[in-house]
Amino acid sequence: MSILYNITAGAPRKLLKPILYTTLANFAGIIPFALLVEAARLIFAPFVDPGTQLDTLRLWWVCGGMVASLVLLYLAEIPAYRSQFRGAYSAAAEGRARLAEHLRKLSLGFLNKRDPGDLANMIMGDFTLVEHGISHLVPQMIGALVMPVLALAGLSFLDWRMAAALFAAFPIAIVLVLLTSSIQRKLGASHMRAKLDAANRLQEYLNGIRVIKAYNLKGERFVRLEGAFKQLMKHSIRIEGLLGPIVLSAIACVRAGLTLMVITGVHLLLGGSLDLITFVTFLIIGSRIFDPLTTALVGYAEFRYHEQAGERIVQLLEEPVMQGERRPPEQHDVVWKDVSFGYMDKDVLKEVSVSMPSGSFTALVGPSGSGKSTMLRLIARFYDPDSGKILMGGQDMKKMEPEALLRKISMVFQDVYLFQDTIANNIRFGRNSASQREIEEAARKACSHDFIMKLPQGYDTMVGEGGSMLSGGEKQRISIARAILKDAPIVLLDEATASLDPENEKEIQMAIDQLVRGRTVIAIAHRLKTVKNADQIVVLDNGRIVEQGRHQELLALEGLYARMWKLQQETVGWRLSS
Ligand SMILES: Nc1ncnc2c1ncn2[C@@H]1O[C@H](COP(=O)(O)OP(=O)(O)OP(=O)(O)O)[C@@H](O)[C@H]1O
Fold it and tell me: Where in the numbering of this chain does the ABC transporter domain appear (predicted)?
């Protein structure tokens, strides 16, 4: 049962119809077979008993029955085929969507531990195995078992000695196949890992192809990729090399049963304790059950391999999502109380306490790696603090429903990601229900309307993968338009570090001014001149708040902020003159 649960990636109900219809189709498939046995019995009757006439009328009826049964079989196979493929594709499509939705609800801490290639491969590759499992393997296994089981029952009734000879070696075959099961589990897991590693290396190679070209790195990365392919080859050969002989031995046992039956039959026939018709019946049936049994034996190993893919999906689906069901309050101040946080075993934020009042502008500044982005990620609940609390409107954010909380927050990050879609739809991500007029209004406020109108199809222009058709500044403004459209009371902003040309910089600044108006804003500032007017500036160093206050107050302290300010004044001069 757990195999079926896994092979369907946790949706065994999808197998109900395929199993039902396939079993019916297989029963229908027995009819021509039974008629064949009856035809043989009629033809051999005059030879066994010379006084008996060939019953031609009955023989014709058998022929007619065979034609009718062919039609019946065809009619039974159509719904079976349809239900197999419907079951397979709907299980995979729904499963993929369920998994993608589940991933969205997991904490970034968990997702960061997983390779994105691994997850993508799971959604596409593992579900393809699930599809194949439902559409091919399960029906194949049913087909492979229905006929032999019925044959064993029928033949035992006809002559138990012949049936015993036919199935004598079958238990050995079953033991051998079960033996493959544990080997398959062990080798299958390492084969799957090698497959994932090869897929990840390939993705890394393709993603980094520009850097590889730019730095002429063809050697090293390619060696890693080639190594991964070689490992995959090694594992594939090992799995086949070890499992192949065992499966072949199991098949040999089944074949041996046929030979043993013929020898037993000849012996009994000569001894006079078996009649010719029974012998012929056994010969016909014995030769026909050989194929499905072989299919079952070979298919079992494949079945277990597919099961492992489904099991991986099920395990991921069981990974707990971020908790919290309280609705966020209508007050939008953010208060940090002794918050500490680290990524895995690396401590990043240490006992951070700060109050960010509703409607105020808080700037986070500090050296690279001091924890500024981490603070923003904690407010958006991408992660929860290891200790301490972050309160919004006086309530612990950890207890709030993550999705409802995200509706309260607009984010504009440095690494803007645009979807491969039109500009209008990329802005619409801010609010799905927005009209074209509202989208254009947001774009105008974000100083984007003019450049959008100059594009070949205006708002309907496709932006390319990740927004590759647009410049860095343009992408940033689109993401600001998106945030303006969302109209959330809290804005998290990560100022672009890349040096923008003065025109772009001015436009982005104007766009940001529109976005932050009247909201609680928490912004990472790399260029200190942009935060001179902030309500408060929080200076972080090595995960601790070392200074806090307004621009002039911090300058007067002559500490880290004052040093950073002085340094930037000097480098601005240098940048302009270069
Ligand atoms: N996902 C992650 N997993 C592990 N460590 C991380 C992760 N993200 C950041 N870090 C580490 O946490 C520390 C703080 O990073 P963070 O990005 O918050 O700093 P920052 O002040 O925003 O830096 P920058 O100004 O360079 O963007 C750094 O040492 C960084 O290497």
Answer: 334-567
Q: Where along the chain do the CATH 3.40.50.300 domains lie?
A: 334-553
CA distances 564 to 252, 375, 376, 500, 522, Å, are 79, 20, 21, 20, 20
User: Measuring CA to CA, which residue among 333, 381, 257 is closest to residue 489?
Assistant: 333
The confidence score (pLDDT) of residue 119 equals 79
Question: What pTM does this model have?
Answer: 0.68
Indicate which residue's Cα is closest to atom 2 of ligand 1.
343
What would the two tokens of residue 514 be? 């529109």
**Does any ligand 1 atom lie closer than 6 A to the CB of residue 235?**
no
**Based on C-alpha coordinates, what's the Rg of the chain?**
35
377 Cα: distance to centroid of ligand 1 (angstroms) = 10
N-terminal to C-terminal alpha carbon distance within the chain: 71
- Kindly report, residue by residue over 373-383, the tens digit of the pLDDT: 999 999 988 88
- Which is nearest to 460 in space by CA: 434, 431, 483, 428? 428
The answer to whether the CB of 22 falls within 8 A of the CB of 142 is yes
| Residue 369 Ramachandran class (φ > 0 left, ψ -120 to 50 alpha, else beta) | left
- pLDDT 10s digits, 536-554: 999 999 999 999 999 999 9
Question: What is d(CA 444, CA 448) in angstroms, rounded to the nearest whole number?
Answer: 6
Task: Kindly give the number of the ligand 1 atom that is closest to the alpha carbon of 540.
Answer: 21
Q: At 311, which amino acid appears?
A: E
Q: What is the pLDDT of residue 577?
A: 34
Q: Which atom of ligand 1 is least distant from the CA of 366?
A: 21
Q: Ligand 1 pocket, 414 CB below 6 A? A: no
Phi, psi of 400, deg, nearest 5: -90, 150
- Nearest atom in ligand 1 to the alpha carbon of residue 374 is 18
Residue 373 CB less than 6 A away from ligand 1? yes
Q: Which two tokens stand for residue 277?
A: 């018709």
Q: Helix 218-271 and helix 160-167: axis angle, to 10°?
A: 160
Residues of the chain with CATH 1.20.1560.10: 2-317
By alpha-carbon position, which residue is closest to atom 25 of ligand 1? 368
Say how far apart CA 339 and CA 387 lie, in whole Å.
6
At 244-302, the pLDDT tens digits run 888 888 888 888 888 999 999 999 999 989 888 888 888 888 887 777 778 777 777 77
Residue type, position 162, single letter: M
CATH (residue range 334-553)? 3.40.50.300
CATH number of 2-317: 1.20.1560.10
Amino acid at 204: E
Ligand 1 pocket, 371 CB below 6 A?
yes
374 Cβ below 6 A of ligand 1 = yes
